[in-house]
Amino acid sequence: MVPDIAPLRGRHVELAELEALVSRARGGRAGALVVSGEAGVGKTALLDHLTARAAAHVRTERVVASQSEMELAYAGLQQLCRHMMGSAARLPAPQQEAIEVAFGLRSAAAPSPFLVGLALLGLLTEAAEEQALLCVVDDAQWLDQASARALAFAARRLDAEGIALVLAMRQPDPVFAGLPHMILEGLGHEDACELLRLAVPGGLDLRVRDQLIAEARGNPLALRELPRALSPAQIAGGFTLTSSLPLESRIEQSLVVQLAPLPAPARLLLLLAAAEPTGDPGLLWRASAVLGLGPEAFDAAKDAEAFVVGTRVGFRHPLVRSAVYRAASPGDRRRVHAALADVTSAEHDPDRRAWHRASATLQPDEEVAADLEKSAVRARTRGGAAAAGAFLERAAELTPSPFHRGQRLIAAAEAKHDAGASDAALRLLGSARVLPLTALQEALVVRLRARAGYALRRDRGGAQHLLDAARGLEGLDPVLARDTYIEALAAATYGGRLGDAEQVTAVAHAILGATSAADETDRARDLILRGQALLATEGQTAALPTLRRAQRAFLEQAPDSLELHWMWFASRAAQDLWDPAGLRALADRQVELARAEGVVTVLPIALSLLMLVQMTDGDLDGAEASCDEIDAIKEVTGNPLPPYGRLLLAAYRGQADQAERLAERVRADGLARGEGHALSAANFSEAVLYNGLGRFAEAVASGRRELPYTRELNLAMRTLLELVEAAAHTGERALAEQALEQLAGVTRPVGTSYALAVLAMAEAQLRAGDDAERLFLDAIKRFEHERIPIWVGRCRLLYGEALNRQGRPAEAREQLRAAHRVLSARGLNGFAQRAADELRASGETLRVHTRGSAARLTEQELNVARLAREGLTNREIGARLFISAHTVEYHLRKVFVKLGIKRRTELKPALAGLTATASSA
Where's the HTH luxR-type domain (predicted)? Predict the structure, then answer.
């Protein structure tokens, strides 16, 4: 066998980069590297060399992923962490529970994948406490989906923990996108010639040599293995045959040819090892005994240098495993899987046993199918929706009864959809169509097809399909029907003006028809469903009592997971009903619950609502910290939530370049996805921006776009106040009156103090004399009572401007000074400048100190500093930003140096108005 150093020829740059990664870990830093390249190009040889060199200096954990375990949730991660679990007790309780449930070590509700990711990061950090840690994952393309996502999560958060993570795979997996990446190419011509000379001692026909080098494309394994498949005559005379097979298949074919002369028992033993991915020698010995394979089979396989049996069973190259398995007959594969099932513990490893039994079974078998179904339940419990889908799909294939087969196909499709594979879910539903189904099962198929189709396309027909599904469930499963109705209403609401104009009304009428006004339910989800339907069809007055009941229910009851998911409807209602106190309470409640339960899919929406509350309360710094947390979650989860918060913050702060750029991005995204809310967000934010900067004509242009859509409420109706202000300043009286009339239509029926304050402020701008003064003072009083400082400042600014126009400069200065104090203190720089300019016009000069960047902090440093300023501990900051406490400490040290401070209490003044150098996320 050619020495292992041979594939490393010409790899000096790659070796240096890998060793530099380990060196950084030894120095207390951390990082990850994805190494990709075709099979046989030398990835494993590089990793062998790296781990051998690093073993004397760092702790090393290495795992080889297996294709046969791709359907077992967290199988790869469990192998990697098997020596680290002793540190699990030092993790925060939710993280410890999550990873122990994921590994099947305790029973509890399915863990959040993000808590598992945080737990992995914590385990790695604990393992690196005493000595730097090198984690190596070979053949990472075969990782199960749950393990791959957890590793990607942790890899993106590594920074200052003394950890090096290397993942080798054939093709870059999108789940690892954004990580540092090394592409391993074939050897150069001279190195390839030398490796071929070592592989084929003696004479080699030049034409054969040139052809082999050309076909191998510098692939070291091909250069070593392809010549072994050639006869002496071919090597000497050049009578080799070309092939159109891909290189990987050519290599596998060559390996099969080399192993063909082995005795049948030795080949069966290799197949047994190839089918058993854990590498447990004891399991291999027991299974070989079941098959009647003796020591001579082991000797022959080892003599052929195909595999090695030590503390673990391993092949000399991963392609040997796949070549052996693919070349075997179906009958032999079933034999070895049956043997492995016989010796795998039903108590300690029931899922692998069930999978081996299924692989050994040809005909339908209810007992085997039932075991797979139980494995699917366990996979769900561990948070492995993808694994559950795979178990259920195979269970359906082996189910004798057509009725139960349909049942399992539907369950498999639901699991696939929950795992994000909606296209696979639709494929399985197509198979279920030809089976005998009950009426309820038919309705479930329609519902799941509508949900999966909407997830894939987000098209305008989604709401109608969901509505049809909800109607079909009436009388069969009323609870599920209502859950489907609320999904249909959400789909219609998201579309807004870009969807079917009558869709929201149609869905709302269907909901009202399916629910009774006499319903005495206090269930939060039922109340918000009917309340939102009333809001869409009959307006605020009719919906107000039900929506108020819904808000109380959401705040007072312990919500189930679905109620938490749809709490945003209650928060939206609080906005539509001009109820700032209700919105504050609901936003705080939703964020608290989402954090406590680890529901990270809900947390970005909850934080968006909290951010709106913070902005309304004038806490723009707190709102920016919420944006930082949203961005951290989006980076980890791929959540597509547009940057609404960043856009509105930039608008309030008068940052024109950033706000205009983000508005363009949000508007384009909304048009592409058919989401009308995005257009409202862009128009509203631009109107705020331009009013603050005194660019009233541009504010009119942005605000005017929302006039036809105020029935959508929410941001559309809030834009009316901006339009009144802009049109009043440009002298477009008719437009201002039109906007005021529409604003009155969505505020006066509600009658809350906030709504009446907004209406008074708008009307005051179009009235004169005592009427205007009375309205301004009423609005200011109400805003102060509701604790909404932004509107207190803006209303005083408008009142001061009006007093100046009336020739009452002394009174104007009183209002303008107060406005300037509030607006500048809250960071509304554009509006503060307007107040300063108006003061100058009244005869008083006041300079505005625009708050800018005091030091060049990176975005992550700024994120950490903001949360530290709010009083959070390093561990709490790490949990918010999905990084380790070590990384938090590392960033804070750099922040202190850059800002010239020594303690956390100095952060607040030092960070006043500070912005990151690149905070456009």
Answer: 850-915
Identify residue 30 by its one-letter amino acid code: A
**Cβ pair 677, 494 in contact under 8 A:** yes
3-state helix, strand, coil split of the chain in percent (to 5) is 70, 5, 30
Residues 6 or more apart in contact with residue 761 via CB below 8 angstroms: 721, 775, 776, 779, 783, 791, 794, 795, 798
Residue 310 DSSP symbol: S
Comparing C-alpha atoms, which of 872, 917, 832, 893 is closest to residue 622? 872
CA atoms of 712 and 581, how far apart (whole Å): 22
Asked if residue 792 lies in contact with residue 783, where contact means CB atoms within 8 angstroms, the answer is yes
The string of pLDDT tens digits covering residues 114-169 is 788 889 998 999 999 889 999 999 999 989 888 998 999 889 888 888 999 999 99
Q: From the centroid of its chain, how far is CA 253?
A: 40
d(CA 126, CA 919): 32
How long a stretch of residues is the chain?
A: 921
- Kind plus residue range of the DSSP H or E element containing 486: helix 478-495
Alpha-carbon span 89 to 85, nearest angstrom: 8
Tokens encoding 306: 């195909």
**Residues 6 or more apart whose Cβ sits within 8 Å of residue 667:** 678, 679, 682
What pLDDT score was predicted for residue 252?
72
| Per-residue DSSP letter, 516 | -
Residue 31, CA distances (Å) to 37, 153, 430, 460, 915 in order? 20, 12, 45, 43, 26
Q: What's phi and psi for 142, nearest 5 deg?
A: -95, 5
User: Residue 3: which region, alpha, beta or left (left: phi > 0; alpha: psi -120 to 50)?
Assistant: beta
Half-sphere exposure of 654 (CA within 13 A, CB side): 20
For residue 821, name the pLDDT band (cuts at 50, 70, 90). Answer: very high
- 690 in helix, strand or coil? helix
- List the beta bridge partners of residue 138: 64
- Tell me the β-bridge partners of 136: 62, 166
Predicted TM-score (pTM) of the model is: 0.66
CA distance 416 to 367: 23
Q: Could you tell me the pLDDT band of residue 241, with boundaries at 50, 70 and 90?
A: very low
Strand partners, 31: 164
Give the whole-angstrom CA distance, residue 200 versus residue 235: 9
Q: Give the CB-side neighbour count of residue 265, counting CA atoms within 13 A.
A: 14
Say if residue 920's pLDDT is above 60: no
Q: What angle do helix axes 809-825 and 789-805 make, rounded to 10 degrees?
A: 150
Spatial separation of the C-alpha atoms in residues 788 and 537, rounded to whole Å = 30
Strand, helix or coil at 447? helix
Task: Tell me the chain's radius of gyration from C-alpha atoms.
Answer: 33
- φ/ψ of 854, rounded to 5, equals -85, -15
Longest dimension (CA), the chain: 110
CA pair distance 198, 37, nearest whole angstrom: 23
